[in-house]
Structure formats: structure tokens, C-alpha cells
Design brief:
The protein contains five helices and 29 strands. The protein has helices at residues 6-20, 25-30, 141-146, 188-191, 449-453, and strands spanning 39-48, 56-62, 71-74, 79-85, 94-96, 120-125, 131-136, 151-156, 165-174, 200-203, 210-214, 218-225, 232-237, 240-246, 249-256, 260-262, 267-273, 281-286, 293-301, 329-337, 356-358, 375-377, 382-389, 395-399, 405-407, 421-424, 428-435, 440-446, 457-462. It is globular and about 60 Å long. The N and C termini lie far apart (49 Å). Bound molecules: CU-O-CU linkage and copper (II) ion (CU). Copper (II) ion binds at residues 393, 395, 446, 448, 451, 456. Residues 51-159, 207-276, 365-462 form the Plastocyanin-like domain.
């Protein structure tokens, strides 16, 4: 690749912005969906323009552009994509939140073989739900995701309300040193605690990018928290924002965004009402850290469209099965610390430690020996996962292939809502109710990748 200059960096940022959103949804709907033609997605090393220190070398990306593309699909239409692995190590693609055929789930050993460097794999499925999802590898995950492999999926539905603009935000950090180059992805003592934090924060691989959107217009923000570690407390300054969907599913009613916590793996769809005066700027903030961080800014352009958030039609619900609580079987899942030594030579990226376990079993999904499923479920039946977190850390727990409805937490109050990733607080006990309506072996793990890779992984079987 030619040496990238600051000038091409700025152009790249604009192109990424235009691709990631900024154009009207109507414009996007006019284009043929990628659902019919098989496309190719190449994993490869790249130089990335993340800091002002020049290119960060040996980042990893998907596709031809620097930043992994937003993959657009249509609900109920077949989607096909060939993964080509241009890396010198095995990889796979997991489609986080999509309820698809188990053979397409992208978990080595459990659902598919490794895709070695130079090899490919054909993924084909029909997404049943509309919403915001994401994709990432499930092999050497800390390294591969830490270096860039994570992209956003938008599943469109023809009945989606039309916004004046749509902006897709892939929020993540990078572990870079003062010279802008990668440093060690983790520190063992942090892996045994909250995880090792990145040093540089980005949206769509840019530090505090600014997007233009029509003054007084309604913008759909599709936010994916793709970092390997960081939990965010999101707020919008300078504009009104309503939560319209979370983790791919529309919320039962819309509510004002107010210090909402989301963890790695989670998504949030916001309806942002841009300020009326041209040039006014709104900001997406993370208020969780010791000092507030501005993640993205939005600048109002043109004469005000004078839209009203109240006029926005509701999103259509996805076709999910309602749990039958009268006939549910309860299954315990207890999170804990664990201290067993383990070999460091797993080729799927063992970190060499067991710090965590689920039901006392530390499985790190990086060896060819996945132990036994922690639970077996009968297809079509309702189950309740009784999850307890006696650890001092927050864990974003993600279940593949199925969705659950959190209920009865001793720590959090929530509206009924289907999700695939639940952020469990220290000392929390929660019930996750689900219908086991998708057969296969489904991984259930913490999405703080250091926790996942040091034992906080399990899987359940639906037959
Ligand atoms: Cu987002 Cu097991 O994955
Ligand atoms: Cu965790």
C-alpha cells in the first residue's frame, strides 16, 4: 500500500463517514441489497491511520477499505459471503446476535473447522431479525479483535421508518503506545480483574470524528460497542436522543437516553434530533471513566428541517418466541474466579491462564477440547438461566444463536426486552428466559475477551 499521508487520512475519514451513514436511508434503500450476490470478505493486515503519529502497522481489517465495512442485509432475504483469509493464522466469522443456522455460527471446534491462512469459507444464511448487529472472529479473538477485526451489520426491513440520515458507529479502543504502534494486548493482572483497557478511543477507527447531519433532522444512530474490554455509559449532549432499539430489538417504548450503560457486544439504536441552528454541534459522550470522553460529534447543516421526535413511527418487532414461564426449566449458571494453570500453546489464541469459570468449569474456547455442554435443552421448550455473579466485576454475557428476556434482577429494573448480551453487575442475580428454538451448540460467554479467553466460556446444546 502506498504511504498514506495526513491528506488521504482526512479523505479516508470522509469516505468512511459517507459509507457508514450520512446519506439518507431512502438513498440506501434504492440500492440493491447485498443479499443475493455472494460477496467476498478478505481478512488482511493493514496500516491504519488512527493517531497523528503516522500509520499504525500490522492492524487487521476486513475488506478493501481501511475500516471493516458495514455489512447490509435484508431481513428474511438470503445473504451469502465468502470469507477469504489473507492472514497468516486461522480465523472464522461469528455473526453476533443473528439467529442463524448453527453451522454458520463461526465457532471453531464447535460449529466449523478453522479457516487457515490462504483458505476460505462460504457463509450463507437468512437473517430473521432486523436491527443492528456485528461480526468478528471467534479465534485468537483478543489479538484479532484487538487489532481491528470487528464490523457492524445492519439488517434492514422495508418497513423501517425513514430518517433524514443514518450514522453507524463502531465504538472501540486500541492498545497503542506513545509512538502509535501496538503494545501488548493484555496484562495478566488486569485480565483477572476488569480487563486491560485500550489507550486510544475511536469511532469508526477515528478519534472523535465529526459527522454532518441536517439541522433539525432526525438521525438514526446505530451504535455497536465492539471493544474487547470497555463498558460505556452513554449520553448525548446538545441534542435530544431517544433509545429506539437495544441489542437488535426495538424497545417496548422509547425513552430518553440518560446515562445508559452498555458493554462489549451490545448495540444501541438512537433517534437523535439534530439542533436547529446551522453549525450547532451535538456530542455522543461516555461518562463512565474518571473524566467524560467525547466519542463523536454531529454538526447541523443547512436550514432546519424542524422535525419532531414524536412523529417518528415505531420500529416493527422481530418475530421472536415469547417464553412460556408456566412450563420453564431452570438452569443455574454461576460465574466465578478460577486459578488453574493451563497450557499456553492453543493455536486459537490461548492467553495461558484460567482466571474465570462458569459453574466451576474454566473453558477458554481456544483448545480442541470443549468439555461437555453446560446444559442440554429440548428444541421449542422454555428455559430460565438463573445467572449469579458473585465476582466483583461487571460481565457482558453473550449467548449465541438465541435471544433471552432478562427478568427478576436483584440489582436492575428493566422493561421486558429481548437481547443476546446481558450486562450483569457484581452481586447480581438475574433470570434470563428463553425459548430454545434454534438447534445446535451455542456458546455462552463473557464478552470481555480476556475473561472469555481465560475461562468464562461455556456452551449449551439444543436438540
Ligand atoms: Cu460477539 Cu461469541 O461473540
Ligand atoms: Cu467478564
Amino acid at each position: 500500500m502506498a504511504m498514506l499521508t495526513r491528506r488521504t487520512l482526512m479523505k479516508g475519514a470522509l469516505v468512511a463517514g459517507a459509507y457508514a451513514g450520512g446519506m439518507s436511508l431512502a438513498g440506501q434503500l434504492g440500492k440493491p441489497a447485498s443479499a443475493k450476490a455472494a460477496t467476498t470478505l478478505l481478512t488482511r493486515r493493514t496500516d491504519a491511520l488512527i493517531t497523528d503519529k503516522g500509520p499504525t502497522r500490522a492492524a487487521m481489517t476486513y475488506g478493501d477499505a481501511e475500516v471493516p465495512p458495514v455489512l447490509r442485509m435484508r431481513r428474511g432475504l438470503p445473504f451469502a459471503l465468502r470469507l477469504e483469509n489473507g492472514l497468516d493464522e486461522p480465523t472464522t466469522v461469528h455473526w453476533h446476535g443473528l439467529r442463524i443456522d448453527n453451522r454458520m455460527d463461526g465457532v471453531p471446534f464447535l460449529t466449523q473447522p478453522y479457516v487457515y491462512g490462504g483458505d476460505g469459507f462460504d457463509y450463507a444464511f437468512t437473517p430473521p431479525d432486523a436491527g443492528t448487529f456485528w461480526y468478528h472472529p471467534h479465534c485468537n479473538t483478543l489479538e484479532q479483535m484487538g487489532r481491528g477485526l470487528a464490523g457492524v451489520i445492519v439488517v434492514e426491513d422495508p418497513t423501517d421508518p425513514v430518517f433524514d440520515a443514518e450514522i453507524v458507529l463502531n465504538l472501540r479502543d486500541w492498545r497503542l503506545g506513545g509512538d502509535g504502534q501496538f503494545i501488548a494486548q493484555f496484562k495478566p493482572r488486569d485480565a483477572a480483574r476488569a480487563g486491560t483497557f485500550g489507550t486510544v478511543r475511536t469511532a469508526n477507527w477515528r478519534q472523535t470524528p465529526q459527522y454532518d447531519a441536517p439541522a433539525g433532522g432526525l438521525v438514526r444512530l446505530r451504535i455497536a460497542a465492539t471493544d474487547v474490554t470497555r463498558i460505556l455509559t452513554l449520553n448525548v449532549d446538545g441534542a435530544e436522543a431517544l433509545v429506539i432499539a437495544a441489542d437488535g430489538n426495538p424497545t417496548a417504548d422509547r425513552f430518553k437516553l440518560d446515562h445508559l450503560m452498555i458493554g462489549p457486544g451490545q448495540r444501541l439504536d438512537l433517534a437523535l434530533r439534530m439542533p436547529d441552528s446551522e453549525g450547532a454541534v451535538a456530542a455522543l459522550m461516555d461518562l463512565r471513566g474518571t473524566k467524560p470522553a467525547t466519542l463523536v460529534t454531529f454538526r447541523a447543516t443547512g436550514a432546519s428541517l424542524k422535525r419532531n421526535l414524536q412523529d417518528l413511527p415505531a420500529l416493527a418487532a422481530n418475530p421472536l418466541s415469547e417464553p412460556d414461564l408456566s412450563a420453564a426449566t431452570e438452569i443455574p449458571f454461576i460465574l466465578s474466579a478460577s486459578a488453574e494453570e493451563r497450557p499456553k500453546d492453543g493455536i486459537c489464541g490461548s492467553l495461558g491462564y484460567n482466571f474465570w469459570a462458569i459453574n466451576k468449569v474454566p473453558w477458554a474456547d481456544d483448545s480442541g477440547d470443549p468439555t461437555a455442554p453446560l446444559a442440554e435443552m429440548k428444541a421449542g421448550r422454555t428455559y430460565i438461566f438463573n445467572v449469579e455473579n458473585p465476582t466483583p466485576q461487571v460481565h457482558p454475557l453473550h449467548l449465541h444463536g438465541l435471544v433471552f428476556k432478562p427478568m427478576n434482577s436483584n440489582k436492575q429494573a428493566f422493561r421486558p426486552h429481548f437481547s443476546d448480551t446481558y450486562l450483569i453487575l457484581p452481586d447480581e442475580k438475574v433470570q434470563l428466559a428463553l425459548v430454545a428454538d434454534n438447534p445446535g451448540d451455542w456458546v455462552f460467554h463473557c464478552h470481555i475477551i480476556e475473561h472469555q479467553k481465560t475461562g468464562m466460556t461455556s456452551y449449551v446444546r439444543v436438540t
